[in-house]
Task: structure prediction
Amino acid sequence: MTTAVRLAEKPLPRRFPVRRVLCVLPLLLVAVVAVRHRSVLAEGFGHLATARWPWLLAAAGATCLTWVAAACTRQGAVVERLPRRRLLATQFAAGAANHLLPTGLGASAVNLRFMTVCGLPLARSSAALALYLLAESVGRVALLGALLIAFPGALRLGTLLPEGAAGPLLVVAVAVPAVAAGVLALVPRLRAAVASFLRTALGEARSVHGRPARALALWGGALAFPALQASALVLVGRSLGLPVPAAHMAVAYLAATVAVALVPTPGGIGSVEAALVVALVATGGPAAVATAVVLAFRLLTVWLPLLPGALTLAALVRMRVI
Result:
């Protein structure tokens, strides 16, 4: 009896507050990234102060609609109905996470966690995530191809690649699949895991495309997302008087984002800006104005939503939505 009383009186060990740390971590990352890029932020705010506000408001509206398009694409990648408000809030939070971690890992992690919390098994959530990424990539490349066909002189592609870069790029394009195939051939367990994932992903894709509403949401959102992003750049360009046709600015944006898609930087910070400036100059825009447009565009679409997005992410973690 005495032993039982002593055990009851003994305080339980305190658990490490993992969830509290996860709530604070996005805000700390925002502060670190903002300090590292403070000169870019200051210059971007300076350009926004000289811009014509009606165009900027329209660009902000297009940016907000990108989260709606992302939510539509995410819903289209799964058969089950996801809670709409939480899905939209998750896309807003995922945008902030995407700019804090490299190569899209932040948004993928947030959405994977959201789908598993909604009751989808991990294998199906991963398959839905892969289907979303595939649809988004295909939509972006397809839109770029359509614009290049419609406006063949919109971009001087030769100016986007350094001299002699085509050879190394071709070698990498051939070597990476060859190495991956070799690894799969030598590691049976990995080959079995990949085969199992592919079967799940194909089954999920067939189920989604068996429902017209889901297929429309998937591919409609996949096309709308890059189109809205390009529209935001066009509107910012108009606000700062960039003397480049709207279609050419859209081509420049799509070409630049496709080019930096595999660059391992958080949200493409740094690489996207450089590629966009080069692409806008390649369409015929003056370098100084193109730089101002890119800084203002990235401030409006990345930096201003970053803090509220991080706060939303922390709130969703605290509410156990993700």
Notes: The first helix runs from residue 2 to 9. The chain has 13 helices and no strands. Residues 19-159+183-318 form one domain.
